[in-house]
# Entry
Amino acid sequence: MASKDLLGQRRIFADGLLAGKTQQQAYEDAGYINAYKNLGNACKLAKDPAVKEYVEAAQKKALDRVGVTAAWILDKVVQTTLKAEAEGDHKNVFKGLELLGKNKKLWTDVQEHQFNITQMGSVIVKDHDAIEGECSRVMTFNVGQEPKRIEDAGK
# Structure
């Protein structure tokens, strides 16, 4: 389904996301029942390929309309960083350098998880991502051993 064909509640939901609403609020405003209880459904709807395509196309169109490109953004970050450096604003110099470093993939954000395990069993690890929603992984283990199996539980 092309993004221009998004109709009804799904279109209202996608427009809500574009307006900056939470998935839950956009889901409720689109007329879905009991958004809080069905938060998982709001997450699934946000991941729907047609909804994602519609949202991404609308965001790209808005950026193109005002002339915002990746090159323009990088240029602004460099200009702002240089200005902050000239003014002795070290906090914003470091922020600008951080953004430029992330753009060049000089480092990546790593999440570390530590578990104290005293018996055999299973642990459910939830990964929260603002854009991609929530996913879970089940890890089966024996004390003193690496996890034997990792299964997707939230897809």
Remarks:
- The chain has three domains: 3-65, 70-103, 121-152.
- The two ends are 21 Å apart (CA to CA).
- The chain has six helices and three strands.
- The mean pLDDT is 76.
